[in-house]
Amino acid sequence: MKNSYQSITYSGGCHCQSIRFKVKIDKFVALDCNCSICYKKGFLHLIIPLENFTLLSGSEFLTTYTFNTHIAKHKFCRKCGIHPFYRPRDHPELIDVNLPCLDEKILSKFEIKQFDGVNWEENIKNIRNLS
Predict the structure, then answer these.
(1) Tens digit of pLDDT for each residue in 118-127?
(2) What pLDDT, in 10s, does the model give residues 48-80?
(3) What is the fold, at CATH topology level, of the domain defined by 8-130?
(4) By the 8 A CB rule, do 96 and 117 touch?
């Protein structure tokens, strides 16, 4: 069974390892969004409470990209360009971690649910039910 409700802590970071973080995962569900930015980045969304995320190092290497409403804060490493996490527009009180940025290859532990971000306005109400 892919879903597990036992909390597990994992470390992660960007490709060059300048940015390092740890996350506590309570629910093994991730979202695969088809919107233009997520699709181009290959972002798999692990949406967690802010208290389950700790930036360990590399804040000086983080750069922020915003667009459209400028509410979402897309973070990426200015050295290697990888997008390890961001503050989402629809739930800025949470953090959205790019699942492949975790050190361990744990994708098989997750239920990956599709999210229709192309039609974001019509579907965003469902995101809290999916995550």
Answers:
(1) 887 777 776 6
(2) 999 999 999 999 999 999 888 887 888 999 999
(3) 2.170.150
(4) no
